[in-house]
Structures are given as structure tokens and as C-alpha cells.
Amino acid sequence: MNFDDIKNEWNAESSEGNNISTDMLKIKQANTPIDKIRAKMKHEFYYQLFFLLLMVFIPFLAGFSTAIKQVYLITYATTCGFTAYYFFKFYTFYKNSYDMSMDTRKNILWFYYEMKLNVELYKALTYIIAFIAVGFMSAYLFIEKASVFAKILTNLSPVFLILNCFITILIIGVITELWAWFYYGRYLKQVKKVVDELDYE
Amino acid sequence: MKETENIFLNLINQHKAIIHKISKMYMNDAEDQRDLFQEIILQLWKAYPTFKGNSKFTTWMYRVCLNTALVYFKKDNKKVDKAPLDENIDVMDINENEGKEEKLTYLYTAVQELNAIEKALIFLFLENQSHRDIAGNLGISEVNARVKLNRTKEKLQFIIKKNGYEF
Q: Of A31, A11, A17, A108, nearest to B66 (Cα)?
């Protein structure tokens, strides 16, 4: 056997089976990594919307004082603002169609960078919301639990407090990175593998 | 719309062997082959408005089929959004071809050990594409296409020999 033999059989191989029917064109769900990420982002949008609605009731359920209610209102408005901005960006990504008829390099790089950009945007939103939440918790402790908080602060050294802040930021960072990787990372990894294979000299 | 659909289906049915071959090269499992086949049809249909007729239909089709196969992600849930496949498409069964197309059976087994780009190179080579056409389809230089193809052919030859077939 040699490549000429294989080529001859390859070219002689006919396509058996029934013809492709119009039913095949009616399927809406594509299965590229971009489509997978888009579908997940769509779900996340609904979850986020649900939590934002749920957040409206927190001041009433938790029995916030007037002072902390005002802080909460600012926090809530900021969260809504950032979420709306990022979800507008995700919506643009969602609606941006891809062109599979480009050459492979252009196509694969478009997929890779479009996915990477949106995963980074997703991480940025997660960081922002996490820091807003931490900021609100701090304000809550200062305003609502001032005496307890003051006692804790006087008993702790500044080095410990700074270390604590650093560890909190680190934990937020690790959780965000891991979550983004768990949720979207494998799609990025698959496309990156093809990019590397194409670039391999 | 109906007319466009008919023209498209007519063209695709004429060249469906391309889709069958790519599905078999990129997926080992019969069900995965059917899923990829379905995905390629979907992507071809979605991309059809970009076909302006400036190049041959098959040239355009090679790109869409290969690009789809390269970024295709196996379905997590096999029951998701599927047309009744058994009634509509038949991906050629490798076992059915045993004997009459033994060499191709060895080829399809061996290509499973190649990476996604190497599969694309071998596919285009078997489709009688020149180095220039291969380079154009993959978006790499002609020299690079030549080097990559030669390496891939050597690798494939080695795999086929390793699998116990004389080459």
C-alpha cells in the first residue's frame, strides 16, 4: 500500500445512504465552543437577573437601619450598573455571528480571541461584584456593628488586618479564576490546542 | 427561502461524501460521527449566505467543513436538539466497507492518532489539493504547508506500519 493506492480508494469512495433532508436545516443549536459559551452566558444572565431581583428584598428581610439602607441602595445601584454594562457587552458577543468560510487560521484565531475576551470580561464582572460585596460587608460592620467591630479592630494588630485584606483579595481571585476555568476553560483549552497545532513549526 | 433551501440541499447532496469523510476522520465513534455530520450541515447552512459563487462550491465547502470539525466540541448530552438522524442521514459504516475498502479502513483507524491540523492536511491532500490550495485553506504559507504535509505523511505512514499493515 502507498499513498497513491489510498488516494485511489479515497476518490472512489462514494457516499451511500439517504439524501440530506430539510429537517437537518431546522436544528437551531450549534455545538462550537463559542455556541457553548454563549449558551452558558445566557443561563448566567437569567441567574444574575434572578439574584438582582432577590436583592431588592434583602433590606426588608434583614431589617436594615436607615443609614445602612442608603449604603445598600448605592451598592445595589452600582451592582446593577456594572451588570447591565457587562451584559450589554455579552449580548453583543452573543449576537456577533461568526464566519466559518474564512481560512482556518483566521477562523480559529477569531474563535480564540473572541472567547478569551469574553471570559476576561466575565472575570472582570465577577471581581467587581465580589469587591462591591466585600465593601458593603465592611460598611455594614462599621455602621450596624460599630461597637463589636471597634473592639475587634483594637484587639488586632495592623499587620494582621493588612494580611487579612490580602488573603481576602487572594481568595476572591482564586475563586474567580477557578470558576471561570471550570465554567469556560475547557472550551478555550480546546481551541488553544488547535491554534498551537497550527503554529507548530 | 424554499428555493434557496432546495438549491443548497441539492449542492450538499451532490458533495455529501466530503462531509462523510471529514466526520469519519475527526470522530472515531459512530454516534459522534453522526453528531459532527449534523453540525457540519448546520454550519454549512448558516454560512451559505457567504457563498457568493466566486470560487467553486467545493472550495467553500472544504473550509466550512474543516473549520467546523476543528472547533467542534462533542455534545455533553447526546439527546440535545437532534434531528431524527437514523431516518435522514447514514454515515457510512466502517464495518460495512471492510473488505471492499480495506485500505481506507486502515487509513481511518490511523488518522485517529493525528492531531486536528494533521487530519486537515491529510484530508486536503487526499482531495487532490495542491500545496498552494492547502496553504490557502489553512491560512499558512505554501512552504509551511509543504513541510507540514510531508511530516504528516511520514507520521501517518509510521502509524499504519505500526498498526501492522505493509506500507
A: A108
The rounded distance, in Å, linking the Cα atoms of B167 and B158 is 9
pTM for the full predicted model: 0.81
Task: Report the C-alpha dihedral over residues A159, A165, A168, A174, rounded to 10 degrees.
Answer: -90
Interface predicted TM-score (ipTM) over 0.90 = no
B137 CB neighbour count, 10 Å cutoff: 23
Indicate whether A16 belongs to any domain. Answer: no
Cell numbers describing residue A40: 452558558
CATH number belonging to the domain at B1-92, selected among 3.30.200.20, 1.10.1740.10, 3.30.460.10, 3.20.20.80: 1.10.1740.10
A198 contacts in chain B (CB < 8 Å): 117, 138-140
Residue from B134, B132, B136, B113 nearest B123 by CA: B134
Nearest CA in chain B to A34: B71
pLDDT tens-digit profile of A125-160? Answer: 989 999 999 899 888 888 888 887 788 778 888 888
Residue of B nearest to A32 (CA): B72
CATH 2.40.50.100 fits B96-167, yes or no: no
Q: With CB atoms and an 8 Å threshold, state whether B88 touches A20.
A: yes
HSE-CB at A160 with a 13 A cutoff on CA atoms is 6
